[in-house]
Design goal:
33% of the residues are buried. The protein has 320 residues and is of the alpha+beta class. Helix 3 packs parallel to helix 5. It contains six helices and twelve strands. A hairpin with a 4-residue loop joins strand 4 and strand 5.
Length: 320
């Protein structure tokens, strides 16, 4: 990840600024103030119907609104500590992307406020800049299911609506009366998956399925490999073509899942070797909430996929 602020000289007074993208519909700038602090500046007409008067302050980031002259207003984001520049860059990149199709300042201001509030909640949780590898693999599995299965069958809007896991649902997806839990396993290991709670394979819906992605480690020189950044970007492109509301919800869910763009995700590359789906029926090997004795408050366990073979369904015959 290249630091865009390094190319900007610290001014003797006021700020030095560099337009981020001349093709972007908004006036967005990387900037430094006279103290050498990193800034993001959004400049827009003061006659706009929506003026960002009280932007939310974020953990480690100050936000202010300032009248630039008689005709323009500036929203300024100031990073308090340069050591956090990668996270600040991710926030800026998110705002840049979220406003890519905002032709009018009113629309852009509403989008920016919404994204800042989301980031305010995200930063309160003190999450790491990069997810642990197990969570990276799990998120890749869920995104593959969205891209490969849900979007082709249901379209972008419903596909993202069905993604419930980041918001705390026991299963990753609720598709009408069907629940789907997605798991990943490494191809070189003994075929088994980890179930992290007694609720993951237990649902009140009519049907429950376990969708398993088998993957192997790779590097970015392999043209068949994928990483989290690539997959997120691919889905964003698909969503951009269909629905602006879908892209907003998708990006909100990514934040809930703990993902923000970071170049370091490109160090985690995988090749996908297969997909399997199992219907979770009465005698499926699992532990459920009703099975727990009084006093047991949490359980996690591993399932051998070999023991799940009687419940496997051919993907082409799966009616979800």
């Amino acid at each position: 990840m290249k630091n865009p602020w390094e190319a900007i000289k610290t001014p003797a007074k006021d700020v030095s600024a560099l337009r981020i993208n001349s093709e972007h519909p908004l006036e967005l700038f990387w900037a430094k103030d006279h103290l050498g602090r990193y800034l993001l500046i959004y400049e827009y007409p003061s006659k706009s119907k929506i003026i960002i008067k009280d932007p939310p302050n974020l953990e480690g980031i100050e936000t202010i609104t300032r009248q630039s002259d008689n005709s323009t207003v500036r929203l300024i984001l100031i990073l308090n500590d340069k050591v956090d520049w990668e996270l600040f860059y991710s926030l800026c990149y998110d705002l840049l992307r979220a406003t890519l199709h905002s032709k009018r300042p009113e629309t852009a201001s509403a989008v920016i406020l919404s994204r800042l509030r989301r980031w305010q909640n995200f930063l309160k949780k003190k999450r790491p800049n990069v997810l642990p590898e197990e969570k990276i693999k799990g998120l890749i599995g869920e995104l593959l299911f969205i891209r490969n299965n849900l979007i082709p069958k249901y379209g972008c809007t419903d596909a993202i609506k069905f993604w419930q896991g980041p918001e705390g649902s026991p299963q990753d997806f609720s598709i009408n009366q069907i629940a789907v839990e997605v798991k990943c396993q490494m191809g070189g290991s003994t075929p088994n998956i980890k179930i992290s709670s007694a609720d993951q394979l237990y649902t009140q819906l009519a049907e429950l399925y376990l969708y398993v992605v088998t993957m192997g480690k790779s590097d970015n020189s392999n043209k068949d490999s994928i990483n989290l950044n690539q997959l997120v970007n691919h889905i964003q492109i698909l969503l951009d073509k269909e629905s602006s509301s879908s892209i907003s919800r998708f990006e909100d869910l990514l934040l809930e899942a703990g993902y923000v763009y970071n170049d370091k995700y490109e160090d985690y590359n995988y090749v996908i070797s297969g997909f399997q789906v199992f219907q979770v029926l009465e005698n499926f090997p699992r532990i459920t909430s009703p099975d727990l004795k009084h006093g047991i408050i949490k359980v996690s366990y591993n399932i051998s996929l070999a023991e799940c073979a009687p419940y496997e369904i051919e993907l082409k015959n799966w009616n979800y």
